[in-house]
Amino acid sequence: MVSMESKGLLFVADFPSVKIEKDFFQSLVQIPPSPHCEVCVIVPVRNEAQTLAATLTALIHQVDLQGQVLDPRRYEIILLANNCTDDSAAIARSFAQQHPDIALHVVEKTLPPAQAYIGRVRQMLMDEAYRRLCSLGRIRGVIASTDGDSQVSQNWIAANLYEINSGVDAVGGRILVERAGRASLDPYAKACYLREVGYRYLITELETYLDPDPYDSFPRHFQHYGASLAVTAEMYALAGGLPPVRTPEDVAFYRALVRVNARFRHSPLVRVVTSARQIGRTNIGLANQLSEWIEMGRQQQPFLVESAAAIETRFVARRQLRVMWWYVLNGYQPDYKSIASLAEMLKISAQWLVQKLTQPYTYTFGQLFEEVEERQQSEETWASHWKVVEIEQAIGDLRLRLESLRLSWSKLQGNLTPNDLEPLEEEVRMG
Quick one: 291 and 333 in the same domain? Predict the structure, then answer.
């Protein structure tokens, strides 16, 4: 059998975009993976003693999409307890002893302050999962991430595999806040949370009409966060691995996937319930956002978001730019007037866009649009043109716009609208 190190080196050589840390081949887990392993689940943990038992219980009792017990040889779990001052590691080791049929590898580390953050820990775990899948030659093997305060659904692993086997490269799962915690939230924070979810769902539906993605069709959601994020080993390599950022590392990774045109699925089949804690491990995330909403309520501050008109303009312009980019790739040169019109819609320099479209082979469309957004920020024209509005107004405007789009779409699809494909949750109805 080819060793893990040599197999990993060969695989990395095939994908030079992978940034290899100096300790890349220092394995966290010494026990080799089962030859039947298709999914490597990673769980970063720091002082999660109160929730970890529920997290692990959900992971060790997995079923397939028909409700039958999932063969435990098809997946393994790597849990890294970093800088813990509670019983998290002991709880995890106890679970491993009580369930010897499940490959649960518990690693305990005390990282130096410069590395003791969630982005680095998740990166270490995903790199380890990548190495182990490579050692088996599974380039379409799945690295699946969750968190120590989250409980995956019973068919979470099977649902992720279903989406990957359907042809996508990465999957974001639907992350729900646990009901009891949500009910106990400060009233203003709860209203903000529910409205934001509804707002983002409506944006997702609008995107379906204006700039559809064949690999991420409706019904879908809007989340791509570490509590439920899956990616093939092959695409993990092509995207360069998890970016070395403190936070939000999951959002940075999603952007890296978009940059390389990964086929990403926001799957409603993949579900996770997470805690409603208001003290988190980062300055960005749900816990921090809940705390901010509570403070906004105390100070009677409005919840301001991007307007429906701005969102629609961005989707329409992105679609037009994508078409224009493909035309240029195929040898057709658009006239300056067309480029200038699109640049005006995007609120960027026409000269800059002309220059970018003269070299379409040097980047992907994902890279191009990322640069467009960076240009919008640096020129400060987009934000100055599109003023933020209160979220209640944005939700109302989105609903009005979607009514006409649903009608037009239903005529083409036999009276079926995206709204019919999945019942709207209470979050979406809140407005």
Answer: no
Provide the CATH number for the domain around residue 116: 3.90.550.10
The verdict on pTM exceeding 0.70 is: yes
* pLDDT given for residue 129 in this prediction: 98
Q: What is the structure's pLDDT at 25?
A: 53
Cβ–Cβ < 8 Å for 73, 44: no
Q: Is residue 417 part of a domain?
A: no
Is there a domain that residue 411 lies in? no
At 117, list the tokens. Answer: 């953050």
Q: pLDDT at position 380, please?
A: 86
90 and 112: one domain?
yes
Task: Give the model confidence (pLDDT) of 169-215 as tens digits.
Answer: 999 999 998 887 777 778 888 888 899 999 999 999 999 999 999 99
Say if residue 295 is in the same domain as residue 211: yes
Distance CA(83)–CA(103), nearest Å, equals 23
Among 424, 381, 372, 377, residue whose Cα is nearest residue 399: 424
For residue 92, how far is the Cα from the chain centroid?
A: 26
What is the structure's pLDDT at 281? 54
Residue 418, in any domain of the structure: no
Q: Are 223 and 197 in contact (CB under 8 A)?
A: no
Write the single-letter amino acid at 287: A
Residues of the chain with pLDDT below 50 are 1-22, 24, 278, 416-417, 419-431
Write out the two tokens for 283: 């300055």
In the 3-class helix/strand/coil scheme, how is the chain assigned residue by residue?
Answer: CCCHHHHHHHHHHHCCCCCCCCCCCCCCCCCCCCCCCCEEEEEEECCCCCCHHHHHHHHHCCECCCCCECCHHHEEEEEEEECCCCCHHHHHHHHHHHCCCCEEEEEEECCCCCCCCHHHHHHHHHHHHHHHHHHCCCCCCEEEECCCCEEECCCHHHHHHHHHHCCCCEEEEEEEECHHHHHCCCHHHHHHHHHHHHHHHHHHHHHHHHCCCCCCCCCCCCCCCHHHEEEEHHHHHHCCCCCCCCCCHHHHHHHHHHHCCCCEEEEEEEEEEECCCCCCCCCCCHHHHHHHHHHHHHCCCCCEECCHHHHHHHHHHHHHHHHHHHHHHCCCCCCHHHHHHHHHHHCCCHHHHHHHHCCHHHCCHHHHHHHHHHHHHHHCHHHHHCCCEEHHHHHHHHHHHHHHHHHHHHHHCCCCCHHHHCCCCHHHHCC
